From TrEMBL, chain A:
Topology of this chain in the membrane: Multi-pass membrane protein
Residue intervals of the ABC transmembrane type-1 domain: 95-294
Alphabetized UniProt keyword annotations: Cell membrane, Membrane, Transmembrane, Transmembrane helix, Transport
Family: Belongs to the binding-protein-dependent transport system permease family.
Main location per the UniProt record: membrane
InterPro entries for this protein: BPD_transp_1_N (IPR045621), MetI-like (IPR000515), MetI-like_sf (IPR035906)
Residue stretches spanning the membrane: 12-29, 99-120, 132-160, 172-191, 233-255, 275-301
Entry superkingdom: Bacteria
Keyword Transferase on entry: no
Coiled-coil stretches noted in the UniProt entry, renumbered to this chain: none
Protein name: ABC transporter permease
Cellular compartments annotated: Cell membrane
């Protein structure tokens, strides 16, 4: 296991380097000069522009810039953005609310997805199963932002049950609707995954044996069917953490939340390359980390899988 | 030495062929197996391949006909929007902005005074073109990379799998936003290309996996022993037998790409405003969401029905191609 962990960690390094280099190249090779536009209509004197370029290492060749950026990542010092804010501080401001949002969405999709999926899978082909399948397809087919708008109109404006937007320093209640919207698509996938897995495990030999031993229905379901069915579901949920954080770009935009998504989108539109690269790097790190965690969880959950 | 040492009991009347020089071992009597009868049975029935089997299976599902009809209609609308409406989607009259449904204008007018029904019909083209283009690119790119990695193995596999990991580490919408925000000349082709650049990894992984399991089959060994070249075996035998999971994933991916295109257009960095698209129209409807939410529902409905059609088709095809699921 330790050997596997070490090898898996080593594999992460080239992936991380490759992904950040790719993003860095995309952002920094964009046409246009972000410095020339800083001075507004009057423009900046040539000497000042030169000085700013030197300050942000923009006068260096591309690969040197990338290496300097990597040094910043390793030392957790991303430098300052064009408006003089510490990027580390920007990250520290943006991430907590997004993490809270992503975790809330994760809990929502896990609880409802597994719950409905279990019921649908136990009675495969029944009326609940058919309804659940159609509803989940509907959630997959309708884009997140449409779900968001409809929720805002119906739950927020017409019924008035939840706040329509979250705004600055949102509390638990005002994050509830954004979290539900963010969870919608993944909820559908979790439901379908649980359903298939449960239906498959119901006909497994060990479930028949458990029934033959005279265990109660709830015991068979909880201990044998559900636990074995959860392996692929947990894998999906783990990998989904990273996807939820980057998926928050849309949700945060609709609900006016100042998280990673909002900050990132602003930075992309304004061409603040350093902020964009730093935020996406952290997102990619979360994504890679979540996938690594899933691989390790796999071994813990399924004793049949052994890592040599 | 007797001519035939293993004379079968009770069949002594059967004449056995004379052994050729050097053929000293047992020779079966000519009529022993009745192989002719076996052949006759086999030729009586049509040979059932996986595809024929799947087609028989699908034909009986109502869901197949529903989703098939939806797809055919959407593709027809996308190809010939003029057949379904005679109103120009770009001919707008601000004086009629936000007017409700009326004769000749079943969906009413949007904020710019454009006919919503006409825009919903013409919007199908952008979604279908981007979806189909991106899916074709992803299938070509993903299958090529996955097949080479899985079939040739060794350092091909090491390098290609790491490249796949790198692109897999960048979420689709995130990568697409970064590139599209740079792009100056935004066309349907570019949007499809950008989605394909960050969307091919899943299909490459699937292809690699199935090729790995298919390439150890007897028929591959047989082809090899018959002297077929490696490339020829890959194209003629391995790829056709790995196609099922790729096709299933492609139908689902088509729906996801349509949603992703709408998301980019919604953010204002997808298709340019002069292209009529559902994503763009949803984005435009956002401004009047509190007062006139219904104008949002038409483009969103078109989008949902299209994606739903492709996703349901993917479900049906998967059920038909997966013998494990069919059993129950």
């Amino acid at each position: 296991m330790l050997w596997y962990l070490g090898r898996r960690l080593l594999q992460v390094i080239p992936v991380f380097l490759g992904a950040t280099l790719l993003l860095y190249a995309l952002v920094f090779l964009r046409p246009g000069d972000p410095i020339a536009g800083l001075g507004g209509e009057r423009g900046l004197p040539e000497a000042v522009q030169e000085q700013i370029r030197a300050q942000y290492n923009l006068d260096q060749p591309f690969i040197i810039q990338y290496l300097l950026f990597l040094r910043g990542v390793v030392t957790l010092d991303f430098g300052v953005d064009f408006r003089g804010r510490e990027i580390t501080e920007v990250i520290a401001n943006a991430f907590p609310v997004t993490i809270q949002l992503a975790l809330m969405a994760l809990v929502i999709e896990a609880v409802f997805g597994i719950g409905f999926g279990l019921v649908a899978g136990m009675r495969k082909g029944g009326i609940f199963d058919a309804t659940a399948l159609v509803v989940s397809l509907f959630f997959i087919a309708v884009p997140t932002f449409v779900v968001g708008f409809v929720m805002q109109i119906v739950v927020g404006v017409r019924l008035g049950w939840l706040p329509v937007t979250a705004g600055r320093d949102p509390d638990f209640v005002s994050l509830l609707m954004p979290a539900m919207v963010l969870a919608a698509v993944s909820f559908a996938y979790v439901l379908r995954l649980t359903r298939t897995s449960v239906a498959e495990n119901l006909s497994a030999d060990y479930v028949r044996t458990a029934r033959a031993r005279g265990l109660r229905r709830s015991q068979v379901t909880g201990r044998h069917v559900l636990r074995n069915s959860l392996i692929p579901v947990v894998t999906f949920l783990g990998a989904d953490i990273g996807a939820l954080m980057s998926g928050a770009i849309i949700t945060e935009g609709i609900f006016n939340i100042n998280g990673v998504g909002g900050t990132l989108y602003d930075a992309i539109i304004r061409g603040e390359s350093i902020t964009v690269v730093s935020l996406t790097t952290v997102l990619v790190l979360v994504y890679i980390g979540a996938n690594l965690l899933v691989d390790l969880l796999y071994a813990a959950l399924d004793p049949r899988i052994r890592y040599a | 030495m007797p001519e035939n040492r293993y004379e079968p009991v009770g069949r002594s009347a059967t004449p056995t062929p004379a052994p050729r020089p050097g053929q000293e071992h047992f020779t079966a009597p000519a009529d022993e197996g009745g192989l002719g009868a076996v052949d006759a049975v086999a030729t009586d029935e049509t040979p059932t391949s996986l595809w024929r089997d799947a087609w028989h299976q699908m034909r009986r599902r109502p869901l197949f006909w529903v989703s098939g009809t939806v797809i055919v209609i959407v593709v027809l609308v996308a190809a010939f929007p003029g057949l379904f409406t005679s109103i120009d989607p770009r001919a707008c009259d601000l004086a009629r902005a936000l007017e409700g449904p009326q004769a000749g204008h079943p969906f009413g007018f949007d904020r710019q005074g454009c006919d919503i029904y006409s825009r919903t019909m013409y919007g199908a083209r952008a979604s279908v073109v981007v979806g189909v283009l991106a899916t074709s690119m992803v299938v070509i790119l993903g299958t090529t990379i996955g097949a080479i990695a899985g079939y040739y193995g060794k350092w091909f596999d090491t390098i290609l799998s790491r490249i796949t990991d790198i692109f897999f580490a960048i979420p689709l919408v995130l990568g697409a936003i970064v590139i599209m925000s740079i792009a100056t000349n935004r066309t349907s082709f570019l949007v499809a290309f950008v989605l394909a650049v960050f969307g091919w990894t899943q299909i490459a992984r699937i292809t690699r996996g199935t090729v790995l399991s298919v390439k150890n089959n007897e028929f591959v060994t047989a082809a090899k022993s018959l002297g077929m070249g490696r490339g020829q075996i890959l194209v003629r035998h391995v790829l056709p037998n790995s196609a099922a999971p790729i096709i299933v994933y492609a139908t689902v991916a088509l729906g996801q790409f349509i949603v992703a295109e709408a998301t980019l257009s919604f953010l204002g960095i997808g298709l340019p405003p002069d292209v009529v698209s559902w994503g763009g129209d949803i984005s435009a409807a956002q401004g009047a969401i509190r007062t006139d939410p219904e104008i949002l529902l038409y483009p969103a409905g078109g989008l949902a029905v299209t994606v739903l059609g492709f996703m349901m088709m993917g479900d049906v095809v998967r059920d038909a191609l997966d013998p494990k699921a069919r059993k129950r």
